[in-house]
Amino acid sequence: MLAAFATSFSPDSPLDGLQVGDAPEPVERENWTTVDVRAASLNHHDVWSLRGVGLREQQLPMILGTDAAGVAPDGSEVILHGVVGADGHGVGPREPRTLLSEHYPGTLAERVAVPTANLIPKPSGLSFEEAACLPVSWLTAYTMLFTVGGLAPGDSVLVQGAGGGVSTAAVLLGVAAGLEVFVTSRSEEKRKRALGLGAAAALAPGERLPRRVDVVLESVGRATWQHSVRSVRPGGTIAVCGATSGDASPAELTRIFFQEIRVQGVTMGSRDDLAALANFVARQDVKPLIDSVHPLARTREAMSAMVDGAQFGKIVVTP
Ligand SMILES: NC(=O)c1ccc[n+]([C@@H]2O[C@H](COP(=O)([O-])OP(=O)(O)OC[C@H]3O[C@@H](n4cnc5c(N)ncnc54)[C@H](OP(=O)(O)O)[C@@H]3O)[C@@H](O)[C@H]2O)c1
């Protein structure tokens, strides 16, 4: 089958190790299901894998991709929760876990196998391309806003870096839930587009907010960390899911303890959270924002837009 996979690592030139070509069919396992992938979305996780983060040399070649929407053998339309338990079943809340494309082959392929427990009905109002955006970026944004952030209608949130998959999800989910959403972006064009999604204000990196917010969603790391710590109210929460620009330095510990700021790491979310997210977008008629859709065979071009940081929304590939 056709798939996009990592064949080597390059921290500085991640696309060098990307190959699109023939790959083995998924392995059949007890209580697993092989799904015909109709769409998969790219995540920065794929770029990290090609840079050599989270994968070891002996695991290569590894099919990339952590989320997808497709069709199960019984004809049902599904989305895939990409978190798998240590011994190959759907993961419980406190056990070791792995994401698709780390230990088990990923979703940038014509077919992918996952634990049957990881299948969730696709919201019928979403296309396969839109639904493929939910299991990683959108689930992570959902967890940061509601599960970890505990935000309620009328609360305020700052989303760092307007253009990314997690960030556009956070803006759209936050607006749909009645939050006051502030964003930052390096790009004036992306700031304008974030306002078009319903953000209350869109600021240049480091610009002072009108007032401090209840929660900050941090996925950028070094480039925005100081601003995040300065923008959250005393006793507020910074939810961290990534560090695209590198690790934060300095850590701003003095302000964190003196202002009693809670810093909470987030990795994706549970299967139940993904099911709740699917219900939420269906009921509120929220559609994931897609930057572009590419054939699986053109994954290299699709991935290079993500490496350049050019996208606004999710980049999707279709087999
Ligand atoms: N823990 C988890 O479960 C989880 C889940 C999803 C993602 N992540 C991580 O979260 C990060 C974002 O993921 P994604 O898939 O949304 O990536 P993405 O679509 O590539 O977005 C990258 C984001 O970073 C911003 N950015 C990049 N470099 C920047 C810089 N030097 N200065 C300021 N902003 C910068 C961009 O904002 P502008 O272009 O608008 O400035 C954009 O919002 C990645 O590091 C990813 O690995 C983690």
Automatic annotation (TrEMBL):
Residues 13-317 form the Enoyl reductase (ER) domain. It comes from the Bacteria. SMART domains: PKS_ER (SM00829). Pfam families: ADH_N, ADH_zinc_N. InterPro entries: ADH-like_C (IPR013149), ADH-like_N (IPR013154), ER (IPR020843), GroES-like_sf (IPR011032), NAD(P)-bd_dom_sf (IPR036291), Zinc_ADH-like (IPR052711). Transmembrane segments: none annotated. PANTHER family: DEHYDROGENASE, PUTATIVE (AFU_ORTHOLOGUE AFUA_2G13270)-RELATED (PTHR45033:SF3), PTHR45033. This is Zinc-binding dehydrogenase. It comes from Myceligenerans indicum.
